[in-house]
Amino acid sequence: MSGQNIFDNDIFFDGYKKLREREKNANVLFEIPALFAILPDLNGKKILDLGCGYGEHCREFIAKGASEVTGIDISAKMLEVAMNENSDPSITYLNMPMEDLDKLEGSYDLVVSSLAIHYIEDFKGLVKSVYNKLRSGGMFVFSQEHPLNTTYGNCDFPRWTVDENGNKIYCNLADYGIEGKRDTTWFVDDVIIYHRTFSTIINTLAEEGFVVEKLEEPTPDEEILKKYPDYCDLFHRPDFLIVRAAKR
Amino acid sequence: MSGQNIFDNDIFFDGYKKLREREKNANVLFEIPALFAILPDLNGKKILDLGCGYGEHCREFIAKGASEVTGIDISAKMLEVAMNENSDPSITYLNMPMEDLDKLEGSYDLVVSSLAIHYIEDFKGLVKSVYNKLRSGGMFVFSQEHPLNTTYGNCDFPRWTVDENGNKIYCNLADYGIEGKRDTTWFVDDVIIYHRTFSTIINTLAEEGFVVEKLEEPTPDEEILKKYPDYCDLFHRPDFLIVRAAKR
User: Fold this and answer.
1) Residues of chain A numbered 198-237 and touching chain B (CB < 8 Å)
2) Which of A216, B20, B41, B163 is paired with A74 by a 20 to 30 Å CA distance?
3) What is the pLDDT along chain B (248 residues), one digit of tens a residue?
4) B149 by DSSP, 3-state: which?
């Protein structure tokens, strides 16, 4: 089984679980709304969710009219939560890495992935597999950490420059043009992510036969800013990139 | 006549002319090769060059087999140079801003623009006009300052953080998510450019009927780095974005 399985690490799993439970976390406020906003009509659709985690999105797809959902994830612990909390007769959960996509039977109207693709080394291979899994006219919608965010590894300088009051003045951007592996710390050391530039993401999709229809780089609206003023840092550097691409 | 005409300012014009004459300038090393590399076959093509400046590209298009080239520019001074140095029976130079594109007669196989579009406020309007000027299957290829570069206005902090030896450690990135007018200094004060995020650029092209085929964010190769090591800063933040989009 290929792929990185940081989600089965206990310390990581607990930290991640607490993060996702917080009301004000960035996923809930920015990534999930932006991802769902650019999904096509789900009615009667057969959907594949890559890196489905707890299966929250899978259940939401069914609630929005999807006929059948397959959620795959490399982490057995995540899928245990999914099967306990988000099971449904129309959802199938499979414990497998998305790098093994070609081994999966069947075809889909829509392939979705939420914040998992930056863990994948071979983006081109994945895009090729997704293309092959999609029916004609199908769509690939995914979110990932923003390229201005994946560029950071364990740099020997802080990610932000702050003023005397602790306000972020600007982010310290380095190595955007150098793609590849980044060794980061997120709850635990050595969480490996892969940095790709905008052009690599777009060109790979285009080369493999997709039409890029829509990108989103979410920033807070006034209501969110009033409640959580700290998120104004997203205007300096968005946390997420969301992409919708259609199979030609 | 709409549009900003900084190129007719004498101080700007002299500064710009000297910059373009330097062998190691970033246009010659990065932008021009990347732009020409993603052009389609020009043989027999009718081409429109938006912001043609000195007309160097117009002449090159003819040398590469184009049947007919129209170069438009807002600056009469630039076009004077174009007509003196790069005239050809198959090239027509017109003194007009690209915002007035709809007034131009005829249709084209290819619309090209080199480093002019970041001066344009109404990108959506321009993309719409370009679409209307293109024949079916036609292409729009343009370069502009990179979105990580247009984000800077006259900030009250330096663009780069350097170490004790003057080496750039990282660039100081702010306001990427805040689009619109930037007041910059380039030879003269008050050069107005317009910052747009990646998503706005891509989404606008898609919404107006283009398929984005290719993006480039040029960085130096080993040969260039050996001759001009200072350009390693482009790995932190590319200077240019080059886009090829096809009319559906």
Assistant:
1) 198-199, 202-203, 206, 211-217, 219, 234-237
2) A216
3) 456 777 777 777 777 777 666 667 899 999 999 999 999 999 999 999 999 999 999 999 999 999 999 999 999 999 999 999 999 999 999 999 999 999 999 999 999 999 999 999 999 999 999 999 999 999 999 999 999 999 987 788 999 999 999 999 999 999 999 999 998 877 777 789 999 999 999 999 999 999 999 999 999 999 999 999 999 999 999 999 999 999 98
4) helix
pTM for this model (two decimals): 0.93
Rounded Cα distance, A7 and B229, in Å: 42
Beta strands in chain B (DSSP E): 46-50, 68-73, 91-95, 108-114, 134-145, 160-162, 168-173, 180-186, 188-195, 210-216, 240-247
Query: How many Cα atoms are found within 13 Å in the side-chain-facing hemisphere of A195?
Result: 21
Q: A199–B215: do the CB atoms touch at under 8 Å?
A: yes
| Tokens 């040969």, residue located | B223
Q: In the CATH hierarchy, which fold is given to the domain comprising A6-247? A: Rossmann fold (3.40.50)
Q: Is B167 helix (H, G, I), strand (E, B) or coil?
A: coil
Facing residue for A206 by CB, picked from B212, B219, B235: B212
Distance CA A155, CA A160 (A): 11
